[in-house]
Amino acid sequence: MTELTAQPYPFAFELSHTALMIIDMQRDFVLPGGFGESLGNDVSRLASIVPTLQDILHAWRRAKGLVVHTREAHLPDLSDCPNAKLHRGQPSQKIGDVGAMGRLLIRGEWGSDIIDELKPVEGEIVIDKPGKGAFYNTPLLESLKRHGITHLVITGVTTEVCVQTTMREANDRGFECVLMEDATQSYFEKFWLSTLEMVRAQGAIVGWTATSRDLLSALQSMTP
Ligand code: TIU
User: Fold this and answer.
1) Which of 6, 111, 112, 182 lies at a CB distance of 3.0 to 4.6 Å from 11, suitable for a disulfide?
2) pLDDT, tens digit, for every residue of 41-60?
3) Apex CA 47: angle with CA 8 and CA 2, to 5°?
4) Does pTM top 0.85 for this prediction?
């Protein structure tokens, strides 16, 4: 059992029962010309966490931990995208429209894939999800159960949308979750911060938060 320094108190986990989750680090959210920008966002904030995420991913792979990547990506015929989601917010371009990196948030398009810096490798799980939460209408729960996973180290974008929704879904399904403070980001600074504060309040009501520095030193102490 490893004890990770965390808020509001240490997060105890066993590597063999813990997965690193990297949520939606797709070109469509992180790069200009994608879905994130079509919603009116300045996407440059999200790129700031990429080096930290690379450090965590490499250390997790070295320690031989399970990695799960998610992508918010729909079927080409949009049969898994409710009208409510398609039309919400009157975006300049909708899901499925052709953008600079292909059809927005559509499976198999260049823009909907994970950025080169965090490209999945063989043996890692990749989940395409139609919702904000990674458990809704996906095989994630069965996959985690099959691997004996009980604990999740959660990273990715955006903190208050897909990351928080997934963390709440995981919490309700009995997983112990720690959110990495400097490996998650939002288009809005105040939403990043308030999400960290709300999940760890009330004695970790949704889960813990911790820093990459503390995670990396915990991993170093267990990797020969
Ligand atoms: N818009 C926004 O902040 N996020 C999303 O639409 N998806 C994810 O968070 N991945």
Assistant:
1) 6
2) 999 999 999 999 999 999 99
3) 35
4) yes
Q: Whose Cα sits closest to atom 7 in ligand 1?
A: 162
Q: How far is CA 53 from the centre of its chain?
A: 11
CA distance 127 to 131: 11
CA distances from 3 to 12, 192, 219 (A): 4, 25, 10
Ligand 1: nearest atom to the Cα of 187: 3
Q: What angle do CA 160, 152, 179 make, to 5 degrees?
A: 35
The number of CA neighbours under 13 Å toward the Cβ of 83 is 0
Residues 6+ apart with CB under 8 A from 140: 68, 70, 127, 129, 134
Q: What is 74-127 written as a DSSP string?
A: B-TT-TTS-HHHHHTT--SS-TTSEEBTEETTBTT-TTTSBPGGG---TT-EEE
| Type of residue numbered 80 | D
Angle between helix 164-172 and 189-204 (nearest 10):
20
pLDDT at 90: 83
Peptide bond connecting 158 to the previous residue in cis, omega within 30 degrees of 0: yes
Cα 72 to ligand 1 centre (Å): 8
Question: How far apart (Å, rounded) are the C-alpha atoms in residues 206 and 211?
Answer: 17
Is 28 tagged catalytic? no
Closest-lying ligand 1 atom to the alpha carbon of residue 26: 10
